[in-house]
Amino acid sequence: MAVEIERKFLVTGDAWKSGTPTRLSQGYLASSKDSTVRIRLAGDLAWLTIKGPTVGISRAEFEYEIPATDAQQMLDMCEGAIIEKTRWQVSYENLIWEVDEFFGENGGLVVAEIELRSEDQTFAKPDWVGEEVTDDPRYANSNLSVKPFTRWNSS
Amino acid sequence: MAVEIERKFLVTGDAWKSGTPTRLSQGYLASSKDSTVRIRLAGDLAWLTIKGPTVGISRAEFEYEIPATDAQQMLDMCEGAIIEKTRWQVSYENLIWEVDEFFGENGGLVVAEIELRSEDQTFAKPDWVGEEVTDDPRYANSNLSVKPFTRWNSS
């Protein structure tokens, strides 16, 4: 088991775009209050990831590489929409930001995440990093698959 | 992906007991109408298994071996009760019956399953094989974790 400690921010502008992004498709097989089960496909690589409940900004995470053909079939079994995004790895002052640019039903949303070694680790914020949304559950990818960004304004 | 084609029967008596059973603990991380996510631990071996919706008596199944320490931690994240059972492999006329003897909250329940190559495959039934319960969803292990056998008579 790994423990994932992560903070999440909205992104402004596109000054962060550099390098080649990875295209990701991901879906959620099932979610309970205590866990989410994610299928992620990136070209011919795929992973099955189980995450535990969020405690503060930390979360238990179990990740297993699986055959891409399995992932493709399990994406068809997922609840909610499949999330389509490109992920950019952006280096800034010795840390890597993962910037996710969403498409489809989540089009218009761009989010940056930074993984930390401890909950109180300090870090430098690039100019294009905006409002922090770590604690806003709407931005969890498992929730974006159920209520996508383009439908937030509808009741 | 494998396709699991299985028939399930109640078991009478104990003439089937021979050999050494395997002790299994299993739980369900989350279930939706389209999938179940099972953690199974057998001593120092463990598996993560995703099953799709049942169509007739067939079901898509994806199974991955995982570290037993991961399984132990994920069992704590499961919904419902952990299922405790011993599994006996019983050979009868060239087919292997898996006989599950349940304990704890499912104590008193003994079920035999046979895996088939096709839905219409015929097979010989040992004397100790009783009523067929393939189509009774109460006997699905994922349901036994939510409503265990010893509580069926309560409303």
TrEMBL record, chains A, B:
Entry-linked Pfam families: CYTH (PF01928)
UniProt xrefs under InterPro entries: CYTH-like_dom_sf, CYTH_domain, NeuTTM/CthTTM-like
Stored SMART domains: CYTH
Ranges of residues in domain CYTH: 2-146
PROSITE patterns membership: CYTH
Coiled coil: none
Active site positions: 28 (proton acceptor)
Name under which the protein is recorded: CYTH domain-containing protein
